[in-house]
Amino acid sequence: MKVPPGGMKTLLLALGLLLVGAGIYGAADFSMKATDEPAFCGSCHIMYEVVRTQQNSVHASLSCNDCHAPAGGIRKVMFKAKAGAKDVYQNTFGDVLDVIHTTQATKDVVNENCMACHTMTNINVADAKESCTDCHRQVPHFSKSPIAERRVANE
Amino acid sequence: TQVPDPETPSYKTKLAADEIRNSAFKKQFPLHYETFLANNDDTQMTEYAGSVPHEKHLCGDLPRAYKYCQPYLKNLWMGYPFSFEYNRARGHTYALYDLLHIDRINRYSEEAGLPSTCYTCKTPKMVEWVEKYDDDFWAMEFHSFREELDLDDHTIGCATCHDPQSMDLRITSVPLDEALKRMGQDWREASRNEMRSLVCAQCHVEYYFQDKALGPEAKPVFPWDLGKNPENVYEYYKDKGSTERKGFEGNFVDWTHAVSDTPMIKIQHPEYETWYDGPHGAAGVSCSDCHMPYRRMDGKKKISSHHWTSPLKSAESIGRTCGQCHADKTPEFLKGRVVYTQERTWEQLLVAQDLSVKAHEAVRLARAFEGAKPDNYEDLIIAAQERIRKGQMFWDWVSAENSAGFHNPAKALETLARSQQYSQEAVNYAMQATGYATAPKLEGNIKDIVAPIKEHSRKLQQSQEHLDSHPWLGYLPLLPEADLVWDLNKRVGPETP
Amino acid sequence: TQVPDPETPSYKTKLAADEIRNSAFKKQFPLHYETFLANNDDTQMTEYAGSVPHEKHLCGDLPRAYKYCQPYLKNLWMGYPFSFEYNRARGHTYALYDLLHIDRINRYSEEAGLPSTCYTCKTPKMVEWVEKYDDDFWAMEFHSFREELDLDDHTIGCATCHDPQSMDLRITSVPLDEALKRMGQDWREASRNEMRSLVCAQCHVEYYFQDKALGPEAKPVFPWDLGKNPENVYEYYKDKGSTERKGFEGNFVDWTHAVSDTPMIKIQHPEYETWYDGPHGAAGVSCSDCHMPYRRMDGKKKISSHHWTSPLKSAESIGRTCGQCHADKTPEFLKGRVVYTQERTWEQLLVAQDLSVKAHEAVRLARAFEGAKPDNYEDLIIAAQERIRKGQMFWDWVSAENSAGFHNPAKALETLARSQQYSQEAVNYAMQATGYATAPKLEGNIKDIVAPIKEHSRKLQQSQEHLDSHPWLGYLPLLPEADLVWDLNKRVGPETP
Ligand SMILES: [Ca+2]
Ligand SMILES: [Ca+2]
After folding, report:
1. Is A59 marked as a binding-site residue?
2. Are the Cβ atoms of C420 and B416 closer than 8 angstroms?
3. Counting one residue from B and one from C, how many pairs have CB atoms under 8 Å apart?
4. Where are the extended beta strands (E) located within B271-366?
5. Contact call for B328 and A122, based on CB within 8 A
6. pTM metric for this prediction
7. Is residue A90 within 8 Å of residue A96, measured between CB atoms?
8. Backbone phi, then psi, for C339, in 5-degree steps?
9. pLDDT less than 70: residues of chain B
10. Labelling C157: which of B155, C224, C249, C356 has CA 20 to 30 A away?
11. CATH classification of the domain holding A95
12. Is C147 helix (H, G, I), strand (E, B) or coil?
């Protein structure tokens, strides 16, 4: 394996503290941006699958938090801090579920972001369904594709 | 940047609240209207469906016939107007033309034979008529409304599904509104996703005309009170009529089969009832998701396509329709999956059809039988007829459903298996009724026992020669010679007092 | 960003290349081993499946019987070892125990009656034996290997599917390797996704034992050369035997039905053949996707669960399995969809079963008939038997398939409809053969015509009283009294020379 487990833990704890710090004090531009990117999220083996799929999707050029955090402002900082702290905590101390499912908060945020980016073409579409992904089910993590194409042991 | 919030579009049109003419909507919704006019294309078929209005019982080449055909349709509907003419459906813009031209309605007489109820699913004029005549409307003379109609302006259209002022979806169908009420539901409280199917449920459903003993005569009713599946509907029809015929007391009866003397039920287009608990319906995928995909007509705003047709007509169409949900699959793959289901459904549909024919023939032979009969002969004939009624109803459920099984593969195949079982039971009872004396006449290929009737119409039934051309046709009465009195929205023959 | 491709980790174990003992893998893969041991839980059922090894023909309560039962199994397999004992499958860790305990193998004699081929899908010992005996192995005496076996260490295990040194997936099954070759395929070139189903295709497939006239005796073969569907397989079997029986010349024959004297085919667990062109198989969803979901045993890293069982045993299990792809649906909804298909399949399965029984009875009566016979009597009996063979094979296809239809709803229901048609044709021919003299005896409910046989075993067949207890059992020969000689991996009776 690539990273010795102990070293990983230390690294993650540090990151966690960084995130929590960011949440409390308001973030410097740099760390705010860096912690949006696939490179950061993908530093966690648990996130490999979603990074992998996102990187193969039409949304490859986006950063994760273009979808997964509210757009800008204090709301974004708070959301990230909370989500980040939870991710780090779960990863370090908790049991991660067998299949990670999105929280309702994530679903709402993501859907807002879809609409925000695609507003112009979606004036008439809006809430035909509860969420955009009711139709665009593969966006962006290919959730209906065979497991072998996206998921693997040890992650 | 300042972008508008996306939300359900609600409009303020300048139209009158009771506007029903399609043309009135054109100016404000030119793009929608453009897709609406695409319904005029009736030239393309898919593997099992499509829009060319061929005669469904004829096997052969377009335009009159097709490679997938059901050769016994005229036999199975013997004695009922459906045996005169029944074609593949085409676009909504033809609804009125086809209704006013079809031979099912008696155009050779001042009496149409079928009630004004038939207009229910063909024109937004219904809004006016229901307002004006209320429950008196249904039993009024069909012909008396022909001349009021403009074939284009009054065919199924905007006002059928939309409030003309806000363009919100609405239900204008009396039977749907009432069926929902009886189930304790109200479309006014339905979600947008539900409305995207309910507007179709106004028409793409099984219906019947109320027996006058039980309420307003000829009023259209959706038989959903016991559930929407064929078994429920069969049960439902058991006490919706006033016949006193032994063994069928109180049953609803569409017509009595001329050859086997069986009180029959006709099933029409149960798309909604088939879809609702299938893989897509259960998952909340609406009719409009597949039959009204979003399109970008001006390269910018998306609108709902108003070209209601098969999504399988081209790879692009599949991509834009199915592809939004099944983005990981190719159009060829998706089409292949539909055809996978349709092939199996079609094969069983034909088996069920053949057995239904055999059942009628078995009862025909048993009724004509002159040898020694068992004591329970009469009961056996009734039992056989009851199974014919049921078997054919189940066959018709899938035959009349327009997706050849795709809307619900498991239900389609189950329904056909049951149809076959009921029809076989009918054959068994009928053979028993003659102590098996008639059994040898039922051996072998059905095509050799009963020939498919290829030609039949109101005009032909005016000719004795025609009635002599097939043993089954002999059971029909000769009609008096007559010429067309009505066609489309015009009188074409002399007025008779 | 740099994330690794989704490739299974490759290991360097310290195991020997020919290691086959399960225990040897335990130390290096304790978490995997822990999930593997979960296969020992044989206490839970789901609605239509599960792991309690009840007798599939008994209707009633667990542990011996179940609410969904097929009461005529013993009748339909009359004369074949399957009629002695057939239970619901349970976990892989029981494979060897159940094989060595089952009454299908003659444990009352030094000759098992069935060949060593039976070991093929029960133990990784096969790797050694095939190496050592090559094609001589198959026809060797089954009993002679019992004492070599450890029930735990040698049951289906790691070496069956993995290279012990790299843990790469591999195929150890001779018939699968060869079947693929005959189709121009090679598992060594298969994708990871394909391998995740192919390892299961080693066993969860229909198979037969080669007729010695056509190659190494009793060698297991997968009948896929003409295609994997029931119609293809029926065709395939037409020239894979050496019988000279009129009407069946050259047919492969598993056994001759004792009551109707029909040369039969037995179908076993065609999971792979059912799945491959169903909604999931066609979409590339592998067996392992649903039966080996990832688990985080240490709360962190994922491993493939090696507890092969129904995914429907709990809401959590559905969530972690189906939820990998259907995250938008609740476990209850997903389970409901499975049951929706299973209900329909099960109902048709029972109808097909009853008709198969009726067909045997019809031929039994026709063969016993002493009145005047038509000229073509013999041909009619042959035709009837051929339809029995086909109808029952199609019924067995779905009966033996372990998902009660879910792996491919449309194919399951189609296959059952066809089964019913073939069996009905058999009844028709048989009645014809007696000029319908026997027809009245076939009227009414099948339960009143032929009673289900509830108890039957090798031991019982040693008793005349038992053979007298049901008309059908009378067609069986009385077996000489004998006591158990073998059970599990031990001799339990005296050695006879
Ligand atoms: Ca009807
Ligand atoms: Ca077999």
Report:
1. yes
2. no
3. 81
4. 294-296, 302-304
5. no
6. 0.95
7. yes
8. -65, -35
9. 1-8, 497
10. C224
11. 1.10.3820.10
12. helix
